[in-house]
Amino acid sequence: MKIDRRSFLALTIGGAAGTALTPLPWKLTDDSSIWSQNWPWTPVPAKGENSYAFTSCNLCPGGCGLMVRMVGDRAVKIEGLEGHPVNDGGVCVLGLSGLQLLYGATRVKSPMKRVGKRGAGHWKKISWKAALAEVAEKLGKLRDDNQSHTVACVTGSKYGTVPALFKRFMTVYGSPNVMTTPSVSDTLEMALQVMHGVEAQVGYDVENADYILSFGSGLIEGWGSPVRMFRANSAWRESGAKVVQVEPRLSNTAAKSDQWIPINPGTEAALAMGIAHVLIKEALYDDDFIRNYTEGFAGWMLMVLEEYTPEKVASITGIDKMVIVKVAREFAGAGKPLALCGRANGETPGSLAEAMAVHTVNALVGNINQEGGVVAVPVPEYAAWPEIGLDSTAQNGMAKDRVDGAGSDAFSLAESLLNRFAEGAMSAKAYPVNALLVSDANPVYTTPGAKDFKKAVEKIPFVVSFSAYLDETAQQADLVLPNHVYLERYEDMPVMTGLQKPMVGLIQPVVYPLHDTKNVGDTIIELAKTMGGSIGDAFPWGSYEACLEEALGDKWEMLNEDGLWQDEAFQPAAWGEAFATASGKFEFMNPAMNLMPSYVPLNLEGNASTFPLLLMPFDSMRLASGFISNPPFVIKSVEDTMLKKKDVCVEVNPATAKPLGLADGKLATLSTPKGEARVRIYHYDGIMPGVVAIPRGLGHTADDKYMAGKGVNVNELIGSVEDRASGLDTAWGVRAKLAKA
Amino acid sequence: MKEAQGHKKNKKFGMVIDLDKCTGCGACMVACMAENNVPFQEDESDKLLGTAWMRVYKMTNGKPFPETDVCYIPRPCMHCEGHAGHSPCVSVCPATATDYDNHTGVVSQIYTRCFGCRYCMAACPYHARVFNWWDPVWPADMEKMLNPDVSVRMRGVVEKCSFCYHRYQQAMEKAYYEERQDIEEDEYQTSCTQACPAGAITFGDLNNPDHAVHQLAKPDNKHGGRPKNPHAFRLLERLGTNPKVYYLSSREWVIRAGDNYVKNEKTGSGGH
């Protein structure tokens, strides 16, 4: 057939007209628009009955109350519990992200046994029975060989029933080596022990203070109970209280304060002593308290008057002497002044002499155990568990010296010195460490000198982790016996972070356990029973819950009902009864222990010619730096002045950076005596020239791609410097060098 | 609904953020993500590519050490009223995917209508709108934590802060169920307001003199809602977007940073 122009047009037009008359094009358009709006891969969250479940947060020691929004059996959102004494409805970034830890990819889903090389990440799933049997067998063998003391244990807190169970286990097993993750609470506790003669925690009545002098405490950067401090900070705005922040860096706390006093790094104690000098010299102190309730003032006063003149303190701290005098006068003149210590978020214990110096500033104005002052808060008492009988192996083991030297003649005040553990384990001076148990702690990440700690762990033949997550420490383990996540379990949580009253929070399950995990309390009880003998006898409880209920005794009912127990009636002891020292008074110094409030310059690692700068870690609420890693939401909230792609940003003053040729945003190499890291330069006017500030909490290597491989872990760049008096880590920084990458 | 039906006058939900109290902790951002099913990616350090309805910006006064000062400024959607509901984004949307609700003052965003032209993003002077370049991924069991009250978005659409409108709907439903015509101030609060540990965010009806937001900002409705409180300001006031988010600050440099001032211009003059 011949196709001419006419028939071609007729066919085309006719065809088009015919097609247009059929429903086909409309059907196709409709289908494609439906198709383009069909996203089967986009989840549709299931509906269900709405309810709230109540519990406490344990992602930091702060003790906030939580209400978890439930839809059916799904937990969909964590909210702050209104009316709770700590957080009253508020909640922090990490607390809000807790469900990502529960439902996230970093959980350990069942007991696991290492199959490849240490840290290579090859694991085999095993049963709980097999896991417990293996731990029992390994520990049993060490005990049979009279090596029980070579087993060490690290827990997160030292308070509460779970650490108590670990301690009980270790005691009856026969090892003195129980350590806890350190913090400034340890130092403050020692200060109270020395100066008050009491076993108590330092509480601060921040809500009622009207002049807050903070020696570098990150009041709104994680110090104390973070949400409580946020609320206090807002209350100060409304009440007109004055906040003075002493710190080398314009932190968020400094920016929010009424007065920021930049100070040479590490010289806060000198300023405290300088203020004490002015208070004494100008007779601005509380005469009644000093005269009637203190001991050793006369001697100490002479030293202060001679050693810490404003001129001298000005040259140490770099603060104008008139500022020192003015702050001291304002402090004394305020109705309820309060001096706070513990740098940044308080994870570094710091120097005991410094804690005592700041405590003395409080004592001089007589605000000890007063409204708006410092309160010695006793540790909540628990019902006693049955006595335990130690067999001869346990007795021999317990009589051995500790690996970390805590409680020895040199460090008689210390209960635990995790910062000294790595050296003790590496050198094996007294004995090698043959096994390590780790629960609710991640020392391979959190200990300053983290690389050394890791090396020490690598040397230990048997490492057991009880972590719910495959964190850096769990990665080095031979066996992981995973705990439930806090939203799946019961646990008590004594809140020891500066509250004015004794308080215990209750962690309660809000969802059924998702995986084949076990409450670590139950794990310990079952382990003890598997080992049998005197060890098994020490754990008569059928379950951890039974043990918890027994320990909490008369508190249990209130805890179970309200989710928290607080000693509402608690009143701080009056001055006449507050002090249990040898003199029965507040003691300014302890000559026998050669302890007094003073400024002890710190010898930082590295020499000044090779490392001309100072590196200081800083804390942000948008980064968790402790045992818990940063869930995706937390990482998402991190500023781009802290993290860019995979590089951490370090704050450098333009005046320091420019002569080094370090432009804003450019890569550089940061080196310290401990190591080297690639960093990005962030020009920040708020950092003192000569100082480099680096965020703490980055550089995780464990966990998934959302959490790990971002920035560097500052604990790998910084070492531990031990305090002469306490043995605790007191390094607030390290010498460093920056060079173009 | 008509006035004649016995309903009260229109509401105008808005927010007052006290920058003297704001600590820059970021809880508002995360509370928003958790409430509104906002997704996350492996790398969130490029803030232009990520999705966040609430973002906290860090500002400095630009002075050298030790005169430096820092202030954080949380920025949700401003829910601009413009003139008679002509907010910048609503005016340009070719798909009617975003609209101004005269009853509540909320600027809506309907994801299934949005076809991703991003005109609204270009029009928004506050960078309050974000585009989904990728489909969201919730690894492991994280789909379990999705909130059924907020639709999960897909790639190719724009999203933004809704003032947690679903919470308003729920509160109203509850009120109707209890045979009340209206809700109390505390019955409808956004997720960020609820979470803010510093209590820096206040939320409520700007038209209601009993509500805290009205008392704090003292909006002057005769003059486009400009605040009568001398410490209150709005971002880019002189653009005339008539936003419903007010900021409080006692620091003059902060107030000046909220708008484009010429050098010798008086603070708060607002360009009028």
How do the helices and strands line up, and which of them pair or pack?
The complex is a heterodimer of chains A (about 750) and B (about 270).
Chain A: H1 5-21, H2 24-36, E1 50-56, E2 65-71, E3 74-80, H3 93-96, H4 98-102, E4 112-114, E5 123-125, H5 128-144, E6 151-155, H6 161-173, E7 178-180, H7 184-195, E8 201-204, E9 211-215, H8 226-239, E10 242-246, H9 252-256, E11 259-261, H10 268-281, H11 287-293, E12 294-295, H12 297-307, H13 310-317, H14 321-333, E13 337-340, H15 352-364, E14 374-377, H16 392-399, H17 418-427, E15 435-439, H18 443-446, H19 450-459, E16 462-465, H20 472-475, E17 479-480, E18 491-494, E19 503-507, H21 520-531, H22 533-537, H23 544-552, H24 556-562, E20 564-566, H25 575-578, E21 586-587, E22 613-618, H26 632-637, E23 643-644, E24 647-652, H27 654-657, E25 667-672, E26 675-683, E27 691-695, E28 734-740
Parallel strand pairs in A: 6-7, 6-15, 9-10, 9-13, 10-11, 12-21, 15-16, 16-17, 22-27, 24-26
Antiparallel strand pairs in A: 1-2, 2-3, 4-5, 4-17, 8-14, 18-19, 19-20, 22-28, 23-24, 24-27, 25-26, 25-28
Chain B: E1 13-18, H1 27-35, E2 55-60, E3 70-75, H2 88-92, H3 119-123, E4 130-131, E5 158-159, H4 165-177, H5 191-195, E6 201-205, H6 212-217, E7 219-220, E8 226-227, E9 232-233, E10 245-248, H7 252-257
Parallel strand pairs in B: 1-10
Antiparallel strand pairs in B: 1-6, 2-3, 4-5, 7-8, 9-10
